[in-house]
Design goal:
Number of strands: 12
Protein name: TMPPE metallophosphoesterase
Largest sheet: 6 strands, mixed
Distance between the termini: 71 Å
InterPro entries: Calcineurin-like_PHP, Metallo-depent_PP-like, Metallophosphoesterase_sf
Pfam families: Metallophos (PF00149)
Strand content: 5-15%
GO molecular function, one term: hydrolase activity
Number of helices: 14
Order of helices and strands: HHHHHHEEHEHEHHEEEHHEHEHEEE
CATH architecture of the largest domain: 4-Layer Sandwich
Keywords: Membrane, Transmembrane, Transmembrane helix
């Protein structure tokens, strides 16, 4: 039987990841109610950082072998550039691995340069892994189809082997720069008209501005939030809604960065529902209180009547549910409760639901098909290539507007900022201006 010491490094990293994952499940199931809140918060974040790093170690070993070990066997190893190259690759991998720990130690009103650099390296790491894997697969496929391999000369083989990492690195550098430039631009304003069944005619053309996935934390701070608020105010919405993942940190630590939200002054109110990242902070109650101080109302499995300014007899029901991650984390007093959220919301009036994850939107429509409009986020539209495929297949609604049945629509925001990695590839940050139309 093979001992642990005899396992290759990749297998050891996989075992470590499995052990950390098991400890996460154990702490969620048996320790959640026994640990003090602050301790539980740190334990959860530490476990998530260790789990991510254990998985990344497998990829990092591949990157090192492809971009360093490969060249150490060739004439390039004697070049004066080889030592700086080894140092650069090592620093790149170290920064990428450190990104997950910035949530624990480097969150403030504005992002630290180290956090921006670390998360940029993480984004480049993901792209590089993809190209190394894809080019390697193409190479192996070519060898198989061409029936070559053993017949190929050593010199040609070494040349082809060296070309793969060089091409992967070049593509990664180009796409990283493009992604950084794309994410540095202000969010685009996307105007969408949505017919809402049973919306009173007096509320025709009501304007709702949708924000989602701002992710205040290591790489998004007060300056970007202030820009978002200015753009929202310029749109003059009747209602502003924030559908989760506003933050990645505790309210006390990042309070100064949140202050621009106090300038939102939509006449029919500003509303908020939790996303999965709010529960990762383990600080939801304090966030609720902070948002209330800015005149933003959290919809904690509850609803409000949005009354027409023209007639008090005309209204629709705006409801919000807790994110489904609260159930997974066993977060006390929280969890998606659609019946409670839609209490007194009858099908005689239009119903608009705020639910962070598209999966929650699907579940809500299975239970209450009379909901007319659901506003969600969470997917980021994939945020960066090549993560789009995963986001697409893991969510019943990916991004944009979907019609479900005769009288129901689901709109999924691609996110107003980004999570961690300050890059956008194949997606664009968005502030959504939704015009509600009465039939």
């Amino acid at each position: 039987m093979i001992s642990f010491k005899q396992l290759p490094l990749e297998a050891k990293a996989a075992v470590a990841a499995g052990l950390v994952f098991f400890s996460m499940m154990l702490s969620r199931s048996y320790l959640a109610e026994q640990l003090e809140l602050r301790t539980r918060r740190w334990l959860l974040r530490l476990q998530m950082a260790l789990f991510a790093n254990a998985l990344m170690l497998i990829g990092s070993l591949h990157v090192w072998r492809s971009t360093v070990t490969t060249f150490s066997r060739s004439s390039a190893a004697s070049s004066f550039c080889f030592i700086p190259w080894k140092i650069a690759v090592f620093m790149f991998l170290a920064l990428a691995h450190s990104s997950f720990f910035t949530l624990l130690f480097l969150v403030a009103e504005e992002p630290y340069f180290f956090s921006l650099a670390a998360y940029t390296c993480l984004g480049a790491y993901i792209i590089l892994i993809f190209f190394l894997f894809t080019l390697g697969s193409v190479e192996q496929g070519y060898k198989f189809l061409a029936g070559r391999g053993a017949k190929a000369g050593t010199g040609n083989k070494n040349s082809r082997t060296a070309m793969k990492p060089v091409l992967a690195v070049m593509l990664t550098v180009v796409l990283t720069i493009v992604g950084l430039l794309n994410a540095s631009r202000p969010p685009t304003v996307n105007s969408v008209e949505i017919p809402v069944h049973k919306l009173p005619s007096s509320m025709n053309n009501l304007k709702v501005v949708l924000l989602s996935d701002i992710h205040l934390g290591p790489t998004v701070g007060k300056t970007k939030l202030a820009m978002i608020v200015r753009m929202v105010k310029a749109l003059k919405p009747d209602i502003t809604v924030i559908v989760g993942d506003l933050t990645d940190s505790e309210a006390e630590i990042i309070r100064p960065a949140v202050e621009p939200l106090g300038e939102l002054n939509s006449p029919l109110g500003t509303y908020f529902v939790t996303g999965n990242h709010e529960y990762y902070t383990s600080d939801v109650s304090n966030w609720f209180e902070l948002l209330k101080s800015f005149n933003i109302r959290p919809l904690h499995n509850e609803n409000v009547k949005i009354v027409s300014p023209k007639s008090t007899d005309d209204w629709f029901c705006l409801a919000g549910v807790d994110d489904i991650e609260a159930d997974v984390l066993r977060y006390s007093g929280h969890g998606m409760d659609l019946k409670k959220a839609l209490r007194d919301c009858s099908s005689e009036h239009a119903i608009v639901l705020l639910a962070h994850q598209p999966v929650a939107a699907k579940w809500a429509l299975q239970e209450r098909p009379d909901i007319n409009l659901i506003l969600s986020g969470h997917t980021h539209g994939g945020q960066i290539f090549p993560l789009h495929a995963g986001a697409y297949f893991l969510n019943p609604f990916f991004v944009g507007l979907y019609k479900v049945g005769q009288n129901t629509f689901v709109y999924v925001s691609p996110g107003t900022m980004y999570f961690g990695i300050p890059m956008r590839l194949g997606s664009r940050a968005e502030i959504t201006e939704i015009i509600l139309r009465s039939p």
